[in-house]
Design a protein that fits this description.
Radius of gyration: 13 Å
CATH superfamily: Ribosomal protein L4/L1
Structural class: alpha/beta
Strand content: 15-25%
CATH topology: Ribosomal Protein L4, Chain: A
Distance between the termini: 12 Å
Order of helices and strands: HEHEHEHEH
Largest sheet: 4 strands, parallel
Oligomer: single chain
CATH architecture: 3-Layer(aba) Sandwich
Number of strands: 4
Length: about 100
Amino acid sequence: MKKLALFSALSKKLKDNEIIFVNDLKLENHKTKNMANLIRLFFKKPQSLLIVPEKGNRNAFIAARNIPKTDILNSESLNVYDCLTHKNFLIEKEVVSELNSKLQK
C-alpha cells in the first residue's frame, strides 16, 4: 500500500511539472553557495524543494542542508509524506532507476 501511495504522489508531481530531472548533481566542493546557484538555475524562488541525489553524493548532502525550505534525501528514504509536503523536486537521473526498482518490489 505504501508503494502505491508513493507511486501515486510521484505521478501527480510529474503530471503537474513539479519534478525536474538533472543529469548530474555532482559539485566540486560542498559549499552551500554552489548548491544555491544550481537551484536558482531551475527555480526562481521555490516554495519548498526536495533534492534527491544519487546515493554516494556527499557534497550535495552537505551543500544543501543549510538552504531554507530545502530538504535532501536519498532514494531509499523517500516517502509519501515528503512527496506531499514539498512543492518541487530536483531528482538526479541515476535515481530514477533506483526508484523504479523500489516501486516494483
